[in-house]
Amino acid sequence: MATDLKRIERRTIQYSFDDGIWEMALGGWVFLLGILSLGVALIPGKPFWRVLGWTAILAITILSARFAGRAVRRLKEKWTYPRAGFVSYRRPGGQKKPRRFSWIGGLAGLVSALGYGLLRDFFGYSWAQVGMSLLMALTFFYTAVRANLVRFYVLSIFTLVAGIFVARSGLNALSGIALFGCLLGLALFASGTITFKQFVKKNPVLERDES
Amino acid sequence: MNPPIRNILDIDRLIHEPARLIIMTMLNVVDSTDFLFLQRETGLTKGNLSAHLTKLEEAGYVAIEKTYKGKIPLTVCRLTEEGRKAYQHYRTQWHDLVSRKQNLARSDSSGRASESKRED
């Protein structure tokens, strides 16, 4: 029975990925950042413009993350809830959102900076891209195991292969990471779009009678 | 009354019923969810699901609220603090019972094996 209850818990978690909206939003966001970073990395001339470019990207990153969250909520209200029902998931630890967001952001920034510095000093530039892709692949793998989703195993393998491909392409670190972002963003967006189309096809809007 | 029997009798029957156990397991994972989701995932009829939810609400395990998400009317269900505690308690009790049963089965089979050796 314990196994059956675990299966029910997994299925309930899996539901949040059924419509592919999160993947589309994340893919679009990562692709946007990738393409902007690629543009800034390729700016010739004075470092001042590059610094300005990276500052603008940082601002866009924060603003677009907030916008993406709202967009996901709106899309779910319009497409998912009328078809398959509304679910709001528990926040781990019960912390308030902005505080948790800043903690995660700060920690991710610190780990990335440390990782990048170490990898650059000890192994050379290209390992930064492999390290990043490994981190992302592990995240997708963890999601795949937790929610029992086959397409996330595929995404995990794709992420790792893309990271190795970019690392071997001979691009410098920043251009490489930007290209990796573009590839990953496209893959996520494509996966999300296919899932979303299937979800809409399989789940027509149901008439509600909850009296 | 011996302890294993008392433990079985102590099990929360309100949660132990299969349909309600499924509902409680789902609600334990989420913060809140609506009637439509529960109906689709459990495969219960509207009347049946409604009856189970009413029982859980009367016991104070589930809170039901009629609200709107955008323009969509929703019947939102969530586990109360009491319901969450009762569910956790049920899971622990059940886990203990199963492991005790497994231990008994193991000691039984080892006892039988030693008896058959003695007979040989």
Task: Summarize the structure in words.
The complex is a heterodimer of chains A (211) and B (120). Chain A is built from 7 helices and 1 strand. The model of chain A has no long low-confidence stretch (mean pLDDT 81). Chain A has one domain (10-82, 124-198). The longest helix of chain A has 38 residues, at 47-84. Chain A has 211 residues and is mainly α. Chain A is globular and about 60 Å long. Chain B has 120 residues and is of the alpha+beta class. Chain B has one domain (3-109): Orthogonal Bundle (Arc Repressor Mutant, subunit A), CATH 1.10.10. Chain B contains 6 helices and 3 strands; from the N terminus they run αααβααββα. In chain B, strands 1-3-2 form a 3-stranded antiparallel sheet. In chain B, β2 (62-69) and β3 form a beta hairpin. Chain B is elongated, with a radius of gyration of 20 Å. The relative contact order of chain B is 0.14. Chains A and B meet through α1, α3 and β1 of A and α3, β1, α4, β3 and α6 of B.
Short account of what is shown:
The complex is a heterodimer of chains A (211) and B (120). Chain A has 211 residues and is mainly α. In chain A, 81% of the residues lie in helices and 1% in strands.
